[in-house]
Automatic annotation (TrEMBL), chain A:
Assigned GO CC terms: plasma membrane
Record has Endoplasmic reticulum as a keyword: no
Annotated protein name in UniProt: TRAP transporter small permease
Pfam families per record: DctQ (PF04290)
Source organism (scientific name): Salibacterium salarium
Region of interest (Disordered), ranges: 1-24
Recorded topology in the membrane: Multi-pass membrane protein
An annotated Gene Ontology molecular function: transmembrane transporter activity
GO biological process entries: C4-dicarboxylate transport
TrEMBL record, chain C:
Listed InterPro entries: DctM, TRAP_DctM
Protein known as: TRAP transporter large permease
Taxonomy, superkingdom: Bacteria
Bilayer topology annotation: Multi-pass membrane protein
Species whose genome carries this gene: Salibacterium salarium
Entry annotated with the keyword Cell membrane: yes
UniProt subcellular location: Cell inner membrane
Broad class of where this protein is predominantly found: membrane
Length: 188, 345, 435
C-alpha cells in the first residue's frame, strides 16, 4: 500500500526497450492490474482487521455479558474466504506464492523466460477455469444461506470469482513480461 | 475391502466412474461402478447398517452389474459440499444432512420443526420419505438429483457438558450446536445461542468450550464418540433432522432400465426404515453406554417442557409464513406430517 | 488408463511441475484437475475447482491461521519479538544454541496448545528467525528449530488429528490424547538435545554470546517482555482453560498485541498496514497450497492408491513387525504427498483392523501413525511447514531449509522406532488413568 515503493516495483518490472506504443499500452495494463489487486488487497486488509475485532467482541460478550454474537463463526468463515481470494493477486505480484527454482535458476535466462511462458499459460488456464467455476458454484448456491444469519452464499462465491480473476491477470502479466523479454532478446 | 492390487481397467470413461475395486462380473464392460461418499467414520451406523448393506444388496440383485463403493470420512468432500458434489458428479452418490444447505429444502424441512418428533427414528424416517412421496412440491426440491431415500434421526435432546439443563431458565445463554436452520431458530427462541458446526467437529468444540453442548439425537453420543465430553442429556423430543442418500442424476440415468427397476424396489420407504432403525439401534447402544459412563439423563417436568414448547411456537409460525410467501400450503404439509406421525404411535 | 495409473502419473507430473518452478499450490491444482477429469470427467473436474476452492477457504476452523499470524506480525513489526529474544539471550545466551533451544520450547508450547502446526510455524518463524539471524545463527539451524517445534503440536494434547483418529477407529479419545503427552514432551527434549549436539559438532552455526550479563541487566531485560508474556499467557491460557477456541485465541492475541503496541506508541500507521499486508500474503500462500492439496487429495482418493498400497502390504505373509514396518513406510511415502487427515481417512478402514489383527494396540498405533504423518510436513514435495518458513525467510533457498531439517527427520524416525520397541512410553499414562 506504500505508493512510492509500488512505483519502484512497477518500474523494475516494466521492460524498457519496446517501441513506445507497446510500452505505453503495456504499462497502462500493468498499472490497471496493480490497481485492481491493490483495491481487493485493501479490502482484504480491512476484512482481516474487522475479523480480529468481531472475534474479540464476540469472546468478550460471551465471557462477560453472556451475549455472544449470533453468527460470529459463519461470518468469520466467510470473511476468511474473502481475504484469501482477494489477496491471491497481490501475493503473486509480490512473488510470495511458494515455488522451487533451484533447478530452473541454473537455466540460461532466456530458457527461464520461455519456460515461464509455458508454465504461466498452464497456470493461467487453471486459474481462469477456477474463476469461471466459482461463478458456476455461485449459481448452484442460489437460494442457499449461511445458516444462523441469512447471508446469501452465492454473493460470496461471486466475490471469490472476482478475486481469482484478478489473480489470473497477475499471472498473465508475468507471462507477457516473459514474452517481451524473449522477443526483446531476439531483436538484439 | 480389497486384497487385490490388480484393478481391472475398463478403459471406458463414458460409463461413469470406473473406480473398480474387485471383479464383480465376468464382463466388466457391463458393470457400473459408483462412488458413494459420506462425511462420517466408516463405523457410523448409516454406513455399516444402511449404506453398506444397500451396496451389497444392489450388487447381488443386479448380479454385479451395478456396484457402489463407499468412501467414508469426507474423502470425496466435506459436509458443506456433499450435496454440490453429488449434483456435479464429484461423488456419484452420497449421504448428508439437509440442514447443511440452509434454504435448499425449505418445504421438506417441515420435519425439522419443534416438537413434532414424537416417535422412533424408524417412524420418523418413514414419515420423511412419505412426505416426499406425497407432495410434488417437496419432490421438486430434489429435482437436481435422484433421491434414493430420505430419513430422520431419533428425537433430539439437549446434550451439555458442565451445565445441566433441568429447567427452561438453565438453557438461557448456553452456546448450543444446531443441526439446522429451524433448530437454530428454536435455540434462539429459548434464549440460547445457536452455533452451526459440522457434526464431526463437535467433540473438539465441546472439549475446548467453544460450545456448551448441542441439540443432538442420543445416538450422536456414539456416532461421534463424544461420551467423554458430555455430562448431561436433557430428554424432550425437541425436534429431529432430515438426512438424504441421493445420486447424481446422470449417473442414475446410466443404469439400464431393468436394473433401475430392481433398485427402485429397494429404495424409498424400505431403506428409509432401515436407516431409521440403524439410528434406533445406535440410540439404544449409546443410551446404555452413556449410563455406564455416568452421563446423567434428565427428564423435564411437564411445566418446564411446556415453556420450551411455548417459546418454540414462533419457529413454526415463521415457517408457515415463509411457506405462504412462496405460495405453498404449509399448513397442509404440517397437518399431514402430524397425522403421519400420529398414525405411527 | 486405470485410476491407479492415472494417480501414479499424476504424482510424476506433480514433481515435474514443482521442479519447473510452478507454484506448489497451483501444481497440485493442475494435477488434481487433470487426474479427476481422466478418472471421472471434465465436467466433474471443473466443478471441483469451484467447490473445493470456495469450501476450503470458507472454513471457520482455518481462520486460526491468519489470526495467529497477525499476532506474530504485530509482535515482530513493532519490536516486541526483538525484545523477547533480547531477554532470552541475556538469560541463556551463554548456552550453546540457547536461542534455538528456546525457540523449540516456545514453538512446542505454542503448537501444542493452538493445535495448528501451520499457524505456529508461521508465527514463530516470523518472530524467531530474524532474531536468530541477528545473533549470527546459521539459517539451517534457525529454520529447523522452528520447523521441529511446530511438529510437536499434534502430539501434545489437545490434538485434532488424534481426535479424528479416535472418531475413525472408535478408540476412546480421552486416553488417546493423554497417550500423546509423554512422547510429545520427550520429543521436544530430544529436539533440544539434537540442536545442542549439532552445535557441539559445528560450533560456528550458533555463536556463543561473549558478553557477561549481570543479574540486574537480566532482570531489566524482562521489563519490555511483560507485554509479550501477558499476551501469550492470555491467548494460550484461554484455549487451555476452555474459554475460547484457537481462532478466538488468535484474535485475542492479535488484538492484545495491537492494543499494547498502540498504547506504547510502537505501532505506527505504516506498521499496522505492513502487519496486515504481511499477514495476508503469508496466509494466502498457505491457503493456495491447501486448496491445491484438497483437489489433489481427492484425485488420490479416486485413484485408490492409498487404499491399494495399504491393502497390498496387509495381504503379505510376513511377520507382524515387518507388516508394521511396511505400513509405516507407506504412511511415510503418502505423507510426502498428502495431508495427514486425508491419509488417515482413506487408509484406516483397511489398516486399523489389520493392526488389531496383528496384535498391536490400537491406541498406541494412533500415536505412532501421527508421528509418521508428522514427518510429512517437513518433506518435499508437499512439506507445508518448510514452505511456510520459506515464505517468511525469503533470502534462504528452500533446498537449504529442507537440508536443515534432515537431522530433525532422522530424529523423528529414530524416535518412532523407539516407540515401537518401548510401547510403554505411549501406553503408560493412558493405562494409568484407565485403571
Ligand atoms: Na496439540
Ligand atoms: Na510432505
Amino acid at each position: 500500500m506504500n505508493s512510492s515503493q509500488k512505483e519502484v516495483e512497477e518500474q523494475n518490472r516494466t521492460p524498457r526497450t519496446e517501441s513506445p506504443g507497446t510500452s505505453s499500452f503495456f504499462s497502462k495494463m500493468e498499472r490497471t492490474i496493480y490497481l485492481l489487486n491493490n483495491i481487493t488487497h485493501g479490502v482484504a486488509m480491512t476484512v482481516l482487521f474487522l475479523m480480529m475485532c468481531l472475534t474479540t467482541v464476540d469472546v468478550l460478550g460471551r465471557y462477560f455479558f453472556s451475549t455472544p454474537i449470533t453468527g460470529a463463526f459463519e461470518v468469520t468463515g466467510l470473511g476468511l474466504a474473502i481475504l484469501v481470494f482477494f489477496s491471491l493477486g497481490m501475493t503473486q505480484l509480490k512473488g510470495d506464492h511458494i515455488s522451487i527454482d533451484f533447478l530452473t535458476s541454473k537455466f540460461p535466462k532466456k530458457v527461464q523466460e520461455v519456460l515461464n511462458i509455458f508454465t504461466s499459460l498452464a497456470v493461467l488456464i487453471i486459474v481462469l477455469f477456477t474463476s469461471w467455476q466459482l461463478v458456476e458454484y455461485a449459481k448452484r448456491l442460489t437460494g442457499q444461506t449461511s445458516g444462523e444469519l441469512p447471508l446469501p452464499l452465492s454473493i460470496f462465491a461471486i466475490l471469490a470469482a472476482v478475486g481469482v480473476l484478478f489473480f489470473a491477470l497477475t499471472i498473465m502479466l508475468s507471462m507477457l513480461n516473459s514474452v517481451m523479454k524473449v522477443v526483446q532478446k531476439d531483436e538484439s | 475391502a480389497c486384497g487385490d492390487a490388480n484393478t481391472d481397467d475398463t478403459g471406458n470413461t463414458e460409463s461413469g466412474s470406473d473406480t473398480t475395486d474387485e471383479d464383480q462380473s465376468a464382463d466388466s464392460a457391463d458393470s457400473l461402478e459408483f462412488t458413494m461418499g459420506h462425511m462420517n467414520s466408516p463405523e457410523h451406523v448409516q454406513d455399516s447398517m444402511a449404506m453398506t448393506p444397500f451396496a451389497e444388496e444392489v450388487s447381488e440383485k443386479t448380479e454385479g452389474r451395478v456396484n457402489f463403493e463407499i468412501y467414508p470420512g469426507g474423502a470425496l468432500g466435506g459436509p458443506a459440499e456433499t450435496y454440490d458434489n453429488i449434483v456435479t458428479g464429484g461423488m456419484d452418490a452420497g449421504w448428508g444432512l439437509q440442514g447443511y444447505n440452509s434454504g435448499k429444502w425449505e418445504i421438506h424441512t417441515a420435519m425439522h420443526l419443534p416438537f413434532l418428533a414424537n416417535g422412533s427414528a424408524a417412524d420418523l424416517s418413514v414419515v420423511a420419505q412419505e412426505l416426499y412421496n406425497q407432495f410434488p412440491e417437496i419432490q421438486e426440491e430434489y429435482d437436481e438429483t435422484k433421491l434414493l431415500w430420505a430419513h430422520a434421526a431419533d428425537p433430539y435432546a439437549i446434550i451439555t457438558n458442565g451445565t445441566p439443563v433441568e429447567s427452561f431458565e438453565d438453557v438461557k445463554g448456553l452456546k448450543l450446536r444446531t443441526p439446522s436452520d429451524e433448530a437454530g431458530d428454536m435455540i434462539e427462541a429459548w434464549g440460547a445461542t445457536p452455533v452451526s458446526l459440522p457434526a464431526p467437529e463437535i467433540y473438539d468444540a465441546m472439549q475446548k468450550g467453544v460450545i456448551d453442548g448441542g441439540v443432538l439425537p442420543v445416538a450422536a453420543l456414539a456416532d461421534f464418540n463424544i461420551f467423554d465430553v458430555v455430562d448431561y442429556v436433557t430428554l424432550g423430543k425437541f425436534n429431529t433432522s432430515l438426512f438424504y442418500v441421493m445420486m447424481n442424476q446422470d449417473k442414475w440415468d446410466q443404469i439400464p432400465a431393468e436394473d433401475q427397476e430392481i433398485i427402485e424396489g429397494m429404495i424409498g420407504k424400505p431403506m428409509a426404515e432401515t436407516a431409521g432403525e440403524a439410528f434406533d439401534q445406535q440410540r439404544e447402544d449409546a443410551y446404555n453406554q452413556a449410563q455406564e459412563d455416568g452421563i446423567e439423563f434428565i427428564e423435564l417436568e411437564d411445566a418446564e417442557l411446556q415453556k420450551f414448547k411455548d417459546a418454540s411456537e414462533v419457529v413454526t409460525e415463521n415457517w408457515l409464513e415463509n411457506m405462504e410467501s412462496q405460495g405453498v400450503d404449509g399448513q397442509a404439509i404440517l397437518d399431514k406430517t402430524k397425522e403421519l406421525i400420529e398414525e405411527k404411535q | 488408463m486405470s485410476p491407479e495409473l492415472i494417480g501414479m502419473l499424476g504424482i510424476a507430473l506433480l514433481l515435474v511441475l514443482i521442479i519447473l518452478n510452478v507454484s506448489v499450490g497451483l501444481s497440485l491444482l493442475i494435477v488434481g484437475f487433470l487426474g479427476i477429469s481422466l478418472i471421472n470427467s471434465l465436467d466433474v473436474a471443473l466443478a471441483q475447482l469451484g467447490t473445493a476452492a470456495f469450501e476450503t477457504a470458507n472454513d471457520y476452523s482455518l481462520s486460526v491461521i491468519p489470526l495467529f499470524i497477525l499476532m506474530g506480525m504485530f509482535m515482530s513489526n513493532t519490536g516486541l519479538g526483538h525484545d523477547l529474544f533480547n531477554a532470552v539471550d541475556k538469560w541463556i545466551g551463554h548456552l550453546r544454541g540457547g536461542l534455538a533451544i528456546a525457540t523449540v520450547g516456545a514453538s512446542s508450547i505454542f503448537a501444542a496448545i493452538s493445535g495448528s502446526t501451520n499457524a505456529t510455524t508461521a508465527t514463530l518463524a516470523r518472530i524467531a528467525i530474524p532474531e536468530m539471524d541477528k545473533y549470527n545463527y546459521k539459517s539451517t539451524l534457525s529454520t529447523s528449530s522452528v520447523a521441529a517445534g511446530g511438529t510437536l503440536g499434534i502430539l501434545i494434547p489437545p490434538s485434532v488429528i488424534l481426535i479424528i483418529y479416535g472418531a475413525l477407529t472408535q478408540e476412546p479419545i480421552g486416553p488417546l490424547l493423554i497417550a500423546g503427552l509423554i512422547p510429545g514432551i520427550l520429543l521436544a527434549l530430544i529436539f533440544m538435545v539434537t540442536i545442542n549436539i549439532q552445535i557441539r559438532l559445528k560450533p560456528d552455526i550458533a555463536p556463543r554470546s561473549q558478553e557477561v550479563v549481570s543479574l540486574k541487566e537480566k532482570l531489566s531485560s524482562l521489563k519490555s517482555v511483560w507485554a509479550f508474556l501477558v499476551i501469550f499467557a492470555l491467548s494460550i491460557g484461554g484455549i487451555y482453560f476452555g474459554i475460547f477456541t484457537p481462532t478466538e485465541a488468535g484474535a485475542i492475541g492479535a488484538m492484545g498485541s495491537f492494543l499494547v503496541t498502540l498504547v506504547t506508541r510502537r505501532l505506527t500507521w505504516k506498521r499496522l498496514v505492513d502487519s496486515l499486508d504481511d499477514t495476508l500474503r503469508l496466509s494466502v500462500m498457505i491457503f493456495l497450497i491447501l486448496i491445491g492439496a484438497a483437489v489433489f487429495g481427492r484425485l488420490l482418493a479416486l485413484s485408490r492408491i492409498p487404499m491399494e498400497m495399504t491393502a497390498y502390504v496387509g495381504s503379505m505373509d510376513v511377520s507382524p513387525f515387518v507388516v508394521l514396518g511396511l505400513i509405516l513406510l507407506v504412511y511415510f511415502i503418502l505423507g510426502m504427498f498428502m495431508e495427514g487427515i486425508a491419509i488417515m481417512v482413506l487408509t484406516l478402514p483397511i489398516v486399523y483392523p489389520l493392526i488389531e489383527q496383528l496384535g498391536f494396540d490400537g491406541l498406541w498405533f494412533g500415536v505412532i501413525i501421527v508421528m509418521v504423518l508428522n514427518i510429512g510436513v517437513l518433506t518435499p514435495p508437499l512439506g507445508l511447514s518448510i514452505y511456510i518458513i520459506s515464505g517468511v525467510v525469503k533470502d534462504v533457498p528452500i533446498e537449504r531449509i529442507f537440508k536443515g531439517v534432515v537431522p530433525i527427520i532422522l530424529v523423528m524416525v529414530a524416535f518412532t522406532i523407539l516407540l515401537i520397541i518401548f510401547p510403554e512410553i505411549v501406553t503408560y499414562l493412558p493405562n494409568l488413568s484407565q485403571t
